Amino acid sequence: QVQLVQSGAEVKKPGASVKVSCKASGYTFTIYDINWVRQATGQGLEWMGWMNPNSGSTGYAQKFQGRVTMTRNTSISTAYMELSSLRSEDTAIYYCARGLGMATQDYWGQGTLVTVSS
Amino acid sequence: QSALTQPASVSGSPGQSITISCTGTSSDVGGYNYVSWYQQHPGEAPKLMIYDVTNRPSGVSNRFSGSKSGNTASLTISGLQAGDEGDYYCSSYTSSNTVVFGGGTKVTVL
To answer: Do B99 and A103 touch (CB under 8 A)?
Structure first.
């Protein structure tokens, strides 16, 4: 069965960076895009960007351009999302999700809580 | 890219039907048949319910259906059940090759 397992919760200080991992299993990792979506406490879903694990191509939401980097290691079927220059407003649960066609995410990771606090 | 517009809350009695709207622009909802709907229960990851406007993934009840007219997409839940309570989000592909979500709708079963 398809599974996306994310790394554990992180606590970071303002200005630092965080790197969240997402290990895929149950399917061929390079065939489907990986999307990243975040959700602040009590708030809605916010799309951050996508990555093609085969080519490494990426596309980011304008809001995160220059601050986010999505990468992968195909040998271990793992995608990564790094967010830099963290501020308190970045405190949220970060989800990875498998892309299905255009702009659809069919399987989701369990989420990783990132807390930014001094 | 502004978020798609959804009603904050919708409620209905068991067995009734409810419809959640999702309004965008011709650059997203109106321009492409790439609208998806997600259900989220508290403390859980979102679950895909509808994709490409009308398609249901395997395992999703046929009580859930999607449609679109112009710049507005809709999710209809028929035969409302207690387990349908939760937050529902729409999303759409955009002309900028990005994805935009709606603000979310809280569904309450009375």
So the answer is: yes
Distance from CA of B16 to the nearest CA of A (A): 26
> Helix, strand, coil % (nearest 5) of chain A?
10, 50, 40
Return the closest-CA partner of residue B36 out of B22, B26, B18, B16.
B22
Rounded to the nearest 5 percent, the helix, strand and coil shares of chain B are 5, 50, 45
Q: How many secondary structure helices (H) and strands (E) does chain A include?
A: 0, 11
Question: From first to last of its 118 residues, what are the pLDDT tens digits of chain A?
Answer: 999 999 999 999 999 999 999 999 999 999 999 999 999 999 999 999 999 999 999 999 999 999 999 999 999 999 999 999 999 999 999 999 999 987 899 999 999 999 999 9
Contact B75, B19 (CB under 8 A): yes
Q: For the beta carbon of residue A35, count every other beta carbon within 10 angstroms.
A: 25
Residue from B6, B39, B99 whose CB has the most chain A CBs within 10 Å, to mutate? B99
